[in-house]
Amino acid sequence: PSGYYVSLLQETSRYGGPEEGGWWIHDRIVVAYQHCTTEEEAQAKVDEVQKLAKELAADSQRAHGEQCLREMDWLEARGLDADWLPEPDGPEHYSVHVTEHLPRNHFGNRHYE
Q: Number of C-alpha atoms within 13 angstroms, CB side, residue 79?
């Protein structure tokens, strides 16, 4: 191979709709990448990028939880059931990959397209 790529990927889950018991859309987006000439060089960068991935995932989980709490407080203040609002999307997840080719973005099947 001509080198290796250390890539940070963001994985999102979005609620698509209630049809057929409910369905979710899963997307994977390349947030950042770095080209390395050797596998050893790439592996040396993995720990640094994994630390960033963990921080981003923790921030996303915290923000998701805070949004859910705000929505529940809003519903409670109005005496509404949780079903009154649409299903919330999930928090983002982050992962690190070392590959010989640059990963591509992947967008899940949108049943409505």
A: 0
Amino acid 111: pLDDT: 63
Place of tokens 């050893």: 40
d(CA 1, CA 27) in angstroms, rounded, equals 27
User: What local confidence, expressed as pLDDT, does residue 112 receive?
Assistant: 59
Residues of the chain predicted below pLDDT 50: none
CA distance 74 to 88: 14
C-alpha–C-alpha distance, residues 50 and 54, integer Å = 6
Q: In angstroms, rounded to a whole number, what is the distance separating the alpha carbons of residues 29 and 106? A: 6
Please tell me the predicted confidence (pLDDT) of residue 45.
95
Q: Is this structure's pTM higher than 0.85?
A: no
Count of positions (residues) in the chain: 113
